Amino acid sequence: MDHSQRDRGEASEHQPDGALAAWARPVGAAVTGALTLALIALAVFYLYELGIGASDSPVRVIMSVLLFLVFAVAGAAMTRAWLRGLPWAATPTLVIGLLLLPTAWTLFQADQIVPALVLAVVAVTGVVVGWKGREQDEEVAAG
Question: Please, where are the H alpha helices in the chain?
């Protein structure tokens, strides 16, 4: 949409952003918030392990911590987007949920039942809430 169309209130050719379902906003924020807190906890744990000398590769530990923190910032942005009702957060939440399902299965196969179940619940919830957010976008665009 160019500035003149926006100033006159004319609709653009692209589809509207839509809105998220009321139930999806707190659920999506909870999922992405939990994942963000888990990444921060992992970063702290890795730094603790580095501090006590339990790592054989300090460079690898620091790079892992930096990666965890980069993704934690992205998770915090998604959590904020869910809380504000911004529909763009639905797609990355869906993708992350799908990517976590094989991790949950691997934990299950390694007899780590409780972490596997917790991760599976978070992952499936992320997929469901991400998919519902996407459905809402399509309904608004069709209507």
Answer: 3-8, 24-51, 58-84, 90-109, 113-142
| Dist CA 41 CA 58 (whole Å) | 18
CA 104, CA 38: separation in Å to the nearest integer?
A: 14
The CA distance from 35 to 28, in Å, is: 11
Structure token digits, residue 133 = 């957010």
Structure tokens at 100: 């976590």
Amino acid 32 reads T
Residue appearing with tokens 């992952």: 123
- Residues in the chain with pLDDT values less than 50: 5-6, 10-16, 136-137
Q: Which of 27, 22, 23, 21 is nearest to 125 (CA)?
A: 27
